[in-house]
Amino acid sequence: MDWISALVLMLGMICAFMALGLPVAFAFLLANIAGALIFLGGAAGLVSLMRGSMASIANFNLAPIPLFLLMGEILLQTGIAFRAVDAIDRLISRVPGRLSVVAVTGGTVFSALSGSTIATTAMLGQALLPDMLKRGYHPTMAMGPIMAIGGVDMLIPPSALTVLLATLASGVSKVKISVADLLIAGILPGLIMSVLFIAYIVVRCRANPALAPAYEVKRLSARERWLPFFKYVVPLFLIFVVVMGSMFSGIASPTDAAALGCLATVILALAYRALRLRTLIDCLKGTAVVTTMIFFIIAASTSFAQILAFSGATDGALAALGKVGLEKYTAIFVMIGVLLVLGCFMDQVSMMLLTLPFFMPLANDLLGPSSFDHVWLGVILLISLQVGLLTPPFGLLLFVMKGVAPPEISLRQVWAAATPFTLIVLAVLLAIVAVPGLATVLVRLM
After folding, report:
1. Domain map (residue ranges) of the chain
2. Whether the Cβ atoms of residue 371 and residue 175 lie closer than 8 Å to each other
3. pTM for this one?
4. What would the pLDDT profile of 298-320 be if each residue is shown by its tens digit?
């Protein structure tokens, strides 16, 4: 079978299974089984498929994923995250679009502690959205900042999707992308986005105050304003310092740092007397469910890439692209374009599964052996994936927001709320393509 037929067969089976309503992981599993029977030699191919799948998840580099998720679960289910947002709310007073600014600021803080974009968006939606709508905020200014800062959670560590991208990309690439490097590289772009979101909110609300009507804020003493901040926010920064400081200084690997962060989170929850045995069990259950899904997907992705390589589809596609003679930046914009289109219809993990087996071998040829260039590309891919969280019709955070919004809010209003912030994310993406140092400066300082 020629490489075009093999590629069409494998991708066609996945699309067909997903069209039938199967979850992504199961669609890939069935396609992998069929591919193993066809390309890997029948029953022997199934044995090889099983061994390869087990080997892909028996990887110590994947340990930070459940640990990062557990940190977010503990902070969310113990209510510490809600207290932190309330403390930030007390500090921000006279500024246009005050509650929208609180959402971005609080979301940035929680992004530095949670490994889940969904958790960040759901928490902020539950904590702030009802009050924003009650005070007459336009739905665009109420929902947009919450969804936008939820997407930034992909960049600011700890981030489970960043660990997943680094692991999957290294599995199909000759150049290994360091999980620690990619985590640290996302910090500056994430902070730039947060600052631009706040600037947009302030400028937009100053130009059109009806978007976020001003209201009288209760006067608080200095003690009432600052005590909650030092009590509920400053200790959370200590968790971030433990995780990122240990990695940045080279003391700990990402796995060690994630374990230290989990321990610090548990100690903090106990100090607040917010952690009960039942709550801890619920946190562990929630983490186990998400981790199982992610590990299942990792096994499916690795096997899919191996079958594509064995069938000749990967080499054939790369050879065809080589004949076209793509230059580095042309190829990068092609990758971005593919991810932006797929982001309208697929979730982020599915896009990684489909594209990395092609993108990373192509990157090997275009970027060479420099690990800094691969980290730069990793940040570009992360931001491109992040855009897919906010683009209709199937952006994941759009549906999370619809789930926490009042019933009278339509999905079309949710889409409209995300649009201006999506454009800001795209502007940052272009800036990082043009100035690679924005993604690599912290890694070089390491």
Report:
1. 60-445
2. yes
3. 0.78
4. 777 677 777 877 787 767 776 77
